[in-house]
Design brief:
The chain is mainly alpha-helical and 137 residues long. The chain has helices spanning 2-17, 31-136.
C-alpha cells in the first residue's frame, strides 16, 4: 500500500509540475552545475570520512573475528570438559558396580554365617530339648 502511495505521489508531482509542457530542453535546466556540485561534495566527504569509515569496518571485522575465535575456543574447551566428565561418569559407574558386587558378596557371606549360627543354635536347642524330655520321662 505504501509503495502505491509513493508511486502516485511521484507521478502526481511530475504531472502537475509540467505546466502543460511535456518537452523540457537541457539548456533550460541546471543539471550540469548540480552534477558538478554533487561530485565535489562527494569527493570532500570521501576525503574527510574514508579513512575513518575504513578503520571502523576493519575494527568491526576484527572484533567479530575475535569473538568468533573466542566462541570456537570455548566450544573446544567445553568438548574437552565433556569428555573428561564422561570418563569420570564411566569411572563412577564402574565403582558403583564394584561396590554393588562387593555388597552382594558380603551379604551372601553374612547370610551363610547367620544360617550356620542358626543351625548351631538349633542343634543346641534340640540337644537341650532332648535332654529335658529325657530327664522328664
Amino acid at each position: 500500500m505504501n509503495k502505491i502511495i509513493i508511486t502516485l505521489g511521484l507521478f502526481s508531482a511530475t504531472l502537475f509540475g509540467a505546466e502543460h509542457s511535456t518537452h523540457v530542453a537541457m539548456s533550460d535546466t541546471d543539471f550540469i552545475p548540480r552534477l558538478i556540485n554533487f561530485v565535489i561534495f562527494a569527493g570532500i566527504l570521501w576525503y574527510l570520512l574514508a579513512d575513518k569509515v575504513k578503520d571502523y569496518y576493519a575494527n568491526r571485522s576484527k572484533t567479530i573475528a575475535d569473538s568468533f575465535s573466542e566462541v570456537e575456543n570455548k566450544l573446544v574447551e567445553s568438548k574437552k570438559q565433556k569428555e573428561i566428565l564422561k570418563a569420570e561418569i564411566d569411572d563412577a559407574h564402574k565403582k558403583a558396580d564394584t561396590i554393588v558386587a562387593d555388597a552382594k558378596k558380603e551379604s551372601e557371606l553374612l547370610k551363610k554365617k547367620i544360617f550356620e549360627k542358626l543351625k548351631d543354635e538349633n542343634k543346641f536347642k534340640k540337644f537341650f530339648v532332648d535332654e529335658y524330655k529325657y530327664t522328664m520321662c
